[in-house]
Every structure is written in structure tokens, then in C-alpha cells.
Design goal:
This protein is an all-alpha fold and 434 residues long. Helix content is 75%, strand content 2%.
Length: 434
């Protein structure tokens, strides 16, 4: 038990330190993320030392159950590809242009619109894609308009990591925890809509309290014409996304696995996009760019963390953690502990670990723990850049656009916003489940 715990803890600490101090290393012409390399080394050590039994690892990776990591990765990558294609078609850039046009000269109006657009898009796509798209837009717009980008960056980031709660597909942690509990898409939505709205209202009030003075300054931005260059592509992409969501909603009734629905829709959109390229004989570039933007390191990171959790389960460490969490109110213990744990080991490994912890419960307590952990895994991204992959990407983009947001400032705003937000979400969850 002790060797497994030591190796796992060291791996988690090194991942956290790499994200803060050495997020990338340069190999030739390429920059490679370090977090997945460290997680892979930790997993390999456990496998070689037989602390993660190979048979148990193989069973976990090839299981026919919904919790199979391969199935979850197929679902996540299919939804991510559709979101990336919509972004490459220009939909998100178009919405950003419309946002500026609607805001006129008021920063308060602009802030509210960006917050709402970010939240809306996150519901139907994913938090990672929205952050990748809107963060550069905010940095460039703020520089052009000579305004402080901080309120917009913080507002965008927390909106993306709050409204990702509403649909199961908003965050890979939602997918993993909900599918491991065999929760259907529609059942998930029915439970999580109230906690999401409670969280959104709470954080919006905090955001306005924090940035009211900053947003008082009027802005003068020359309005640019809003147009879509790839209207047919956008229409095709939006239709595919809507069809996918409809089938996800009814998946429990037509007995088709969600991963297959997402995979079929993503494949269909790819084929339709390819046909459009053949017909128009142009815009081939973004077709390849879409595949370059897929988060491939997540595959190794996800599977490596599954191996580490298998080792923790095999050595009985997970049972000890579960015993501690089960001594208090389920929603409170799992909600707040998952938020904190996400910022020590990242929300994906936290979710993999907690999916095994919740099995110590049954009945209502089981579902309370699952949903509370999902809430903690999303809002945990607020506290530090370590809390989620979204935070890692967000910090990387800020550095790229030469905007300094220190680790301490990130934490300062994160604490002020996260605590009332998760409290409101957990109250909403309590009301719904009782």
C-alpha cells in the first residue's frame, strides 16, 4: 500500500509542478506538454512494479461497461471534433463580432453579452473549445479598444466552466462520472439544470461586484461588418450538432450508446465537409487544422490516470479515502472535497479516482455523491490553473498573447468566485434530489 501511495502522490505533485513551472518542453521544432509524460511515467512504474496488476488494468480498459475509458474517449473526441469544425467554419468568430456590435459603448453590456454567449456555446459544445476560441478574441479586442481584459477573461473562463455542467458532454469529467453511474443524457440534464442556473446566478453577482468599477469606463470600437464566409458549412455543422443532441436526449429510449451517436454524427459531418471541399475546390486548409487541434495528449493522460487509480483500488487506498468522505453529509463532503482535490491532481484523475470512491455508497447517497463530484470537477477549474485542462490551456493562451495573470492572482479571483458558486450549485443539487 505505501509504495503505491508514494508513487501516486509523487506523480500528482510532479504533474502540478510541471503545469506551473514547465508546462512544455521543446524537442526539435515541436513543443510537447509535460503533464502527460509525467502521468505516463508514473503509470509505467506502477505497472512494472506490479502495483497495478496488468490483468486488472486490461479489464478496466476493455470492460464492456459504460465506464470503459476507450468508449468515453470516443464520445469526448467526437464531440470535440464537431465543436472544432464549427469553430473552423467561423461560427464562433462571427458570434464574437455580433457581440461587439450589440454592446455599443457600454462595457457592462459587453461583459454580460460575452458571459452569456460563452455560457450558451459551452452548453452545446464544450468548455475547452470555447476557451480556446474566445480567449484570443478577448485579448485582441481589449488591446484594440484600450480596455482592461481581466473582467472579460475571468468572466469567460468561469462561465465556460460553469455552464459545462448543464449537459453531460460539456466536460470529459461529466462524461466519465455520469457514464460510470449509468446516468442517461436526459436524466443528467433534468438533475443538473437547476444547480447550473444557481451557480451561474451566484457567480454573475460576484463578477459584477468584483469588476463593476473597471467596467464603468466607456469603450469606443469601430464596428466591423459581421458576416459568415462559410455559411453552408456552418449550417451543415449546426444541423449535425442539433441532430446529435436530439439523439443523445432520446438515447436511453432507442438503446443506442451515446458514444456511437456522437461518433456517427462526427463522421457524417467530416464526410459532408469533405464533399463540400471537393465541390467548391477550396478551403482545404481548415480541414487539416481541425485534426491538429484535437487534444491527443489527453488520450495518454486519461489512460495513465486510469492505471494509477487501478493501483490505488488494488491496494485498498481508495477504500480508506471513501471511509473518510462518508463520515459527513454526502453532497457537502463530495462536492467540496472534489473541488479541492481537482487542484492537487487535476479534475480528470480526480474524477477517475472518485468514480471508484462513490461505489461505497448506495441509493440516494450514491447519486448525491456522483452529481456533487461532477459539480466539484467543473467549478474546481476556478481555483488554480492546475484544476482542469481548461485552466492549462487558458494560461498558455494568455502567455501567448502576452497578458500576465500570475498564479496568485488566478487563485485570488478563483477563491472569491468559486466558493459562492459551488455553494449555490450544491444547494440547487440538494433541492432537486430532495
Amino acid at each position: 500500500m505505501i509504495p503505491t501511495l508514494i508513487i501516486s502522490v509523487i506523480t500528482f505533485i510532479l504533474i502540478a509542478l510541471s503545469i506551473i513551472f514547465l508546462p512544455k518542453i521543446k524537442l526539435g521544432k515541436f513543443y510537447i506538454d509535460t503533464y502527460w509524460i509525467i502521468s505516463l511515467l508514473g503509470a509505467l512504474i506502477l505497472l512494472i512494479a506490479n502495483l497495478a496488476p496488468a490483468g486488472e488494468v486490461w479489464s478496466a480498459l476493455t470492460s464492456s461497461a459504460a465506464i470503459n475509458p476507450i468508449k468515453i474517449l470516443v464520445l469526448f473526441f467526437s464531440m470535440t471534433l464537431m465543436s472544432i469544425l464549427l469553430d473552423e467554419f467561423g461560427l464562433f468568430a462571427y458570434l464574437a463580432q455580433v457581440t461587439i456590435k450589440k454592446a455599443k459603448s457600454s462595457q457592462h453590456v459587453l461583459f454580460l453579452i460575452i458571459y452569456m454567449v460563452t455560457g450558451f456555446l459551452t452548453i452545446f459544445t464544450s468548455n475547452d473549445i470555447v476557451i480556446l476560441t474566445f480567449t484570443p478574441f478577448i485579448c485582441l479586442f481589449a488591446r484594440k479598444a484600450n480596455v482592461n481584459p481581466l473582467p472579460y477573461l475571468i468572466g469567460e473562463f468561469v462561465a465556460a466552466n460553469t455552464y459545462s455542467l448543464m449537459f453531460m458532454t460539456g466536460n470529459p469529467t461529466n462524461i466519465y462520472l455520469a457514464t460510470s453511474a449509468e446516468i442517461s443524457f436526459i436524466e443528467y440534464f433534468k438533475i443538473m439544470i437547476i444547480p447550473t442556473l444557481f451557480a451561474g446566478i451566484a457567480e454573475l453577482l460576484v463578477l459584477f461586484a468584483l469588476f463593476h468599477k473597471t467596467l464603468k469606463k466607456p469603450i469606443e470600437v469601430k464596428e466591423e461588418e459581421c458576416h459568415l464566409e462559410n455559411k453552408v458549412d456552418v449550417i451543415i455543422g449546426v444541423i449535425h450538432l442539433i441532430v446529435c443532441l436530439i439523439f443523445l436526449i432520446i438515447s436511453n429510449y432507442i438503446t443506442i450508446e451515446m458514444r456511437l451517436i456522437c461518433l456517427i454524427c462526427a463522421t457524417s459531418l467530416l464526410i459532408a465537409t469533405l464533399i463540400m471541399r471537393i465541390i467548391t475546390k477550396k478551403n482545404w486548409k481548415f480541414f487539416g487544422e481541425s485534426f491538429k487541434r484535437l487534444p491527443y495528449p489527453l488520450i495518454i493522460f486519461f489512460i495513465s490516470m486510469c492505471i494509477i487509480v487501478v493501483a490505488l483500488n488494488s491496494q485498498g487506498i481508495s477504500n480508506k479515502i471513501a471511509e473518510f468522505l462518508n463520515i459527513g453529509p454526502t453532497i457537502t463532503m463530495y462536492g467540496f472535497s472534489s473541488l479541492i482535490c481537482s487542484n492537487f491532481i487535476n479534475n480528470i484523475p480526480m474524477s477517475i479516482l472518485y468514480s471508484s470512491l462513490v461505489t461505497s455508497l448506495n441509493g440516494l447517497n450514491y447519486y448525491q455523491a456522483v452529481y456533487a463530484t461532477i459539480i466539484g470537477s467543473n467549478i474546481g477549474a476556478f481555483l488554480t490553473p492546475i484544476g482542469a485542462l481548461a485552466g492549462i490551456m487558458f494560461s498558455s493562451l494568455l502567455n501567448k498573447y502576452e497578458y500576465k495573470l500570475s498564479f496568485l492572482n488566478f487563485v485570488k479571483y478563483g477563491i472569491l468566485i468559486a466558493l459562492p458558486t459551488i455553494s449555490a450549485a450544491l444547494v440547487g443539487l440538494f433541492i432537486v434530489l430532495h
